[in-house]
Amino acid sequence: MMKFFRLISILFLMSLLLFACMRSQDGSNSYVSSIQIKGSDTIVNLIQSWAENFVEQNSSFNISVTGGGSGTGFASLINGTCDITMSSREIEKKEKILAKYKNIEPVEFKVGLDGLVVLVNKSNPVIQLTLEQLRDIFMAKITNWKEVGGEDRKIVILSRESNSGTHMFFKERVLRNNNKNAKDEFAVQSLMMPSSQAIYDEVYQNPNALGYVGMGFVNNGVKAISVALNAGSKYIYPTSVNVMNNTYPISRPLYLYTNGKPKDIIKMFIDYALSDVGQKIVLKTDFVPIKKIK
Amino acid sequence: MRKIIDTVIETVIFICAILSIIFVVLIFGFLFKEGFAFFKDFGITKFITGKFWNPSSNPALFGILPLIVGSTLVTVGACVIAVPIGVMTALYISEIAPKGIRDILKSLVELMAAIPSVVIGFVGMITLVPFVRIFFNIPTGLTAFSGSIMLAFMAMPTIVTISEDAIRSVPWHYKEGAFALGATKWQTIRRIVLKAAMPGIIAAIMLGIGRVIGETMAVMMITGNAAHIPDSIFEPVRTMTATIAAEMGETVRGDMHYKALFAIGLVLFVITFIVNFIADLFLGKSKNK
């Protein structure tokens, strides 16, 4: 019995000691050496390569990058569970209000540009669409490919989940034509895919499907559609050059958001992202830099 | 001295046992708290019978009828496939198969239960989805039907192992009696064994259903997630579980959308509770016999 009690008391003392250690560390160590980045799936690859290169140069730091969607990123910035939100859309008014309510002050940095590419299967003869036609397709007013010059096949609409910045941007730009008061939504028949990769996979194997993804996801397995502002204007193919000179109609800026003015390592990371080296990585991951790189 | 150790150990065991009950009660309480606040704000009938799930539009619409229909369709489809195959497998394993085959089959079925659902979803997405689209000549293979097939795979191990237990526990003298009266093997299985084991088999089916309703990852990957009420099983659907998983990340704590997801969780919890309750009822019945 004595042995039993002694064991218990030793365990108790040890746990007390451990607690004390943890407390003291918490108090003295205000210097952040690890950052959490969360948000858009679209740019997760870009931020990941930034993080890897950044950590290579400053090996004492630790950066973790997770996707989930821009909405997810903002939600966790507001809930205080991440340091930087990567986003493919601007912060919404609703989110700003919530942030203020929770004493979070989001600061915005524009770090790159992205063109949204409308994808179809390689066997689909359609190569170009106007914004108007795209809008009608995604709202299920056009339901057969033959109405836009294709074969007699039903159109399968692929969209991203509503937590994705890509979803929001496409809705605002194409469905609502940048009209803030419009209430247009994706057709209820549209398939909400959990990731850009899932959209790519379905388009890759299904000749009926069309979907939209960020420029980084396009390769030779699928076909990108040229888009025109209206029936009278030129059809523009989505390339980096066309996004940078603002002729491709479905393009958008990419952002990082921090809580308050960034300092220490967070500031270092953002400076790195905006530097020439960082912007070169933007180009390498198939996005478009915000300025000309030397 | 020995008594003290005894009481200490007993208390520890008691605490462990009571812990799971406490967790269930806490989870239920939490779901109830968040979900109920939502019912009060939005209205329970509007929630259950609403046909549109548009949580991010303005004004937001939280109608889960399409989600309930989606979950039901996938579950029923999975049962139609898994129940006959599962029960037959159980019969074969326990009544017909020679010993060598029985052991192999049994461990294979148990291995099936160990496949993670994300793997099942991934395999389904790459192989089954294109096949279903081409074979049935439909616009897309991401349908309730594909989901049902993949989920049938997940329900089968549960159905097989528990029904097999039930069939095996049918007393030997029942069968001897039947054979003595000149019944063939099939007659004995159909009239005696199946009948005696029925409560256990129904319990197995119910537990299988419980697994299917709660399944998330595989369903999210292969049913297409279109929140509209489908006309047939060959159309994309969206289930309740997939909705919670896909949208939980974007919500802010305390938000209307956040509460709506908890309300879906509550609906799911009630459904699985009822299913498990029925299973328990039948399991109890089979034990009493």
The H/E string of chain B reads HHEEHHHHHHHHH
State the secondary-structure class of chain A: alpha/beta
Overall CATH architecture of chain B: Orthogonal Bundle
Taken from the alpha-carbon principal axes, the silhouette of chain B is globular
CA-based gyration radius of chain B: 23 Å
Which oligomeric state applies?
heterodimer
Coarse shape of chain A = globular
Major beta-sheet overview of chain B: 2 strands, antiparallel
What is the CATH C level class of the largest domain in chain A, in words? Alpha Beta
The overall number of domains of chain A is 2
Number of helices of chain B: 11
Order of helices and strands of chain A: HEHEHEHEEHEHEHEEEHEHH
Architecture (CATH level 2) name of the largest domain in chain A: 3-Layer(aba) Sandwich
Q: What is the number of strand segments of chain B? A: 2
Q: How is the topology of this model organized?
A:
The complex is a heterodimer of chains A (294) and B (289).
Chain A: H1 2-28, E1 34-39, H2 44-57, E2 62-66, H3 70-78, E3 84-87, H4 93-101, E4 106-120, E5 128-130, H5 131-138, E6 156-160, H6 165-175, E7 191-193, H7 196-205, E8 209-214, E9 223-224, E10 226-228, H8 240-244, E11 251-259, H9 264-274, H10 276-284
Parallel strand pairs in A: 1-2, 1-3, 5-10, 6-7, 6-8
Antiparallel strand pairs in A: 3-11, 4-8, 4-9, 4-11
Chain B: H1 2-42, H2 44-49, E1 53-54, E2 61-62, H3 65-96, H4 99-113, H5 117-136, H6 144-168, H7 172-180, H8 185-214, H9 217-222, H10 240-247, H11 256-288
Antiparallel strand pairs in B: 1-2
Helix pairs in contact in B: 1-11, 3-6, 3-8, 4-6, 5-6, 6-8, 7-8, 8-11, 10-11
